[in-house]
Write a structure and sequence with these properties.
The protein is an alpha+beta fold and about 170 residues long. The protein has 3 helices and 10 strands.
Length: about 170
Amino acid sequence: MNGKQKHKKIYKDKSNIDGNGIFAKKDIKKGEIIALIKGPIINHAVVDKKTSSAGPNWIGIGKNKWIDPKVIFNHINHSCDPNAGIKGSKTVVALRNIKKGEEVLIDYSITEEDALWELPRRCKCGSKKCRKIIKSIQFLPKEVFNGYLPYISKYFQQVYIKYHKNKNNGK
């Protein structure tokens, strides 16, 4: 396909949130698969703040494992009240009905485990639920984590649970 991946349900366009974004070509129903994230798997250990931001568009899928999303998914923007989530590690699904022309958004926190990571700017999602400062999964409020549970991979669920267990045990 000449390096261009065709998507039946989404397209890239200018975003009011940040740069370019991904938008719905047609109405998408809650629970419907939007697309699969494709790209090479990158093995990358995070050891300090510098290595924490090595792949700005990478999407975490496990311990030191990332997808470098090619073509369209390197433009997916963040929202603290997303309309899409990631089932498993690569399947983007609608969390609610998405209207044709609406920007498709995920919460970056559900694919990030590095406790040093922070979105390099204040969040501009404009949601009433905006957390302003976006950090890795460990720092999600419990009610937000629980709401996303079906769309958080088992690995990232374990990271969250372990962090809070250690925090509560004074470790």
